[in-house]
Amino acid sequence: MKLYSKISLITILCGFIQHSFGNECEIAQSIYKDLSTEIPECCDGEYIICDETNEKVIELNVNFTNRTAGILAFPESVQLLTSLEHFKLYGDSLRIDSLPDFSSLKNLKSIYVDDKYIDKLPEGLETLENLETLNFSYTKLKEIPDEVYKMTNLKELILHYGPISNSISSEIKNLKKLRILDLGDNDVTGTLPPELCELEDLEYLDLLNNALTGPIPENIGNLKKMKEMIFENSGINGLLPESLGQLENLESLKMRRCDVSGPIPKSFGNLKNMVYLQLYGNKLNGTIPEELGYMESLQQMLISRNNLVGTIPDSFGNLKNMKFLDFYYNNLTGPIPQSLKNLKNLVSLDISYNNFTGYLPEYLNDLPDLNEVLACFNSNLYGYVTENPNIKSCDYARTNICYKEGSPYCKKGAQLCTPELIEKIEAVKRESLLGATDGDVNVDKDEECWAEALGYPCCKKENPKVYYKDESGEWGVESKEWCGIVVKKENADLEQDKDKPATKTTCSEKVTSQGYACCTSKEAKVVLTDESGEWGVENNKWCGILN
Prior knowledge:
Among the domains are: 1-140, Leucine-rich repeat, LRR (right-handed beta-alpha superhelix), CATH 3.80.10; 443-544, Cellulose docking domain, dockering (Endoglucanase, Chain: A, Alpha-Beta Complex). Helices cover 11% and strands 22% of the residues. The chain has five helices and 34 strands.
């Protein structure tokens, strides 16, 4: 007696039953009759979608109000829809606990199931050679089924939000065509197998909220097509591999609240397409690499709640697309760099809970999109509240930042300015201004535009006003930007004779009482005027202009 395989029997049975039911649309309607009080029209284009002839059902979207209070099995008549390409089962009131064998659905390309009663995959899926998308989200699957690793034509594997608690098998390497892997919001355990990084077509990896252990595999750099990786609260630990910098197409790296440690890789500077970098709440240490300033597409950088030290690199002025810059809760020091004035698209700046010093930059007043400045708990930071009418959120608590009486600007946590505090702020401001223009670049100040070597243009006006002078040369201001003043050849000799002793040797007592000397040259230029008097600069140090 000849024995038939299970699949062959199903095929024979399907042919017999299909003849009894009539066309495929009627079969689809019968499924709704078994499950729901509402039956859609044949080929309605929403729940039952047919081909051009309206004879074959190519998509079935089952979303209904359960007609009984009991838990149901899905009708086996779905096996007769042999033209079906897309199957979708979803809805808040579903009470379906099992699906029939799908091995007869040879044309099936995608399955989407969102049902909290389903706890296993339907049988026969590994035989479906056209299956590209398997999405069982918000179900009761307790593990990644072994048969998944046999579905070698899968492009999307989405098992989001469930109680999955086993590990990712090394057999994941069989899914060579996989582009999307989403195991987020489960309890996946174990380490990430290196074989995962052999999936060279992978573009999206979501491991959000899991119970993984161990580091990111060193061969992660093989995933050249990767665009987005989510490791947030996944349990991943260890060092960030330098090979992450090889993911040239990476646009988003989200690693908030992991347990990674060590330095931020310098190789991140190679990620020219990176838009979102989230390293919040880890154990990263060391300094912020200057190379991060080369990530020219970056719009969001969250590196708060780590153990980072040192200063903000000047290279961050290159991040012209930056919108959200967050350094909150580290051990960063030094002044806020002047180069950040180039971030014209900046929306939020958070430097709070650090050890920043110096003067809060006034260029924040002019950033057109800035609406949040958080600077609290920087006890050696001085300045005035940012006078930008667009700022709706701010915090200056535990700083030496003050507001003038009657100020209409955001001033949460700031002190009311007093004469003593203003005097100290102005002194810090002068020191910050002096430090911002220090340099050791040797340039020719005669005729040629020497300022270009420092990244600035030269002044275009004849005989521009000198606002500042340092070792590089004399500086003017045009269109609210610094510009270098070119010394003409015929005036070069006169420039050399300027530093002669002045006949008057006194200046304001308010200057000398702060520990500054009077200028020695009667030709000293007035660089700054405040309540203490007029200030000049000699030998890269502030001095009081002679009376």
